Amino acid sequence: MPLIPATVATSTWDIVGWNRAAKLALTDYEVLPPGERNILRRMFLDPAARAAQSDWESVARFLVATFRAETARAGEDSRAAEIVAEISEKSSDFARMWTENDVQTTGEGAKTIRHAIVGEITFEFSSFAIDGRPDLKLMIYNPAGEADLEKMGKLCG
Predict the structure, then answer these.
(1) Inter-axis angle of helices 92-99 and 78-90, nearest 10
(2) I want to staple 65 with a disulfide (CB 3.0 to 4.6 A). Which of 9, 91, 102, 149 is the partner?
(3) Is 105's pLDDT higher than 70?
């Protein structure tokens, strides 16, 4: 899958694996300390991640609602509580969205990002459970159209 970004995340959304396409299109996870590889943390506390979203408010709300659903399903988790406490303290946007108590589940959808080199790229994403590892999920970001695939070709070429 040289042109399809893929990541592996824990149940608390810490990114623990990624391919070259994810590194080039989403972020270079290798340069981030492991504690900063959390999807929610990046969305609310990293200005670059925020700026890369074509509709930050909608994406952020979706992530908060989905995180709430997934962590509720997984049961009490001290890491999840730490993430919520840290981000709530540092981001009034997160604190507001978290207290709204929205819950949403999804295994797929569409996402458009603004990439510094090739401009906007739209992906259709899917989330998959990993057999034998209920604590991990695989996220695949498939370029949505021919133009998006061409942009990924330029990035990964």
Answers:
(1) 120
(2) 102
(3) no
CATH assignment of the domain containing 40: 3.30.450.180
**3-state SS, residue 22:** helix
Instruction: Record the pTM.
Output: 0.88
Q: Count of domains in the chain?
A: 1
Q: ∠ CA(150), CA(155), CA(157), 5° rounding?
A: 85
Range of the domain at 133: 6-156
d(CA 94, CA 150): 35
Is residue 85 packed enough to be buried (19+ CB in 10 Å), middle (13-18) or exposed (0-12)? exposed
Higher pLDDT, 15 or 11: 15
Q: For residue 104, what pLDDT is reported?
A: 65
Q: Is residue 128 part of a domain?
A: yes
- Which run of H or E residues covers position 115? strand 108-115
Residue 91 confidence class, pLDDT cut points 50, 70, 90: very high
Residue-averaged pLDDT of the chain = 91
Which class for 48: exposed (0-12), middle (13-18), buried (19 or more C-beta within 10 A)? Answer: exposed
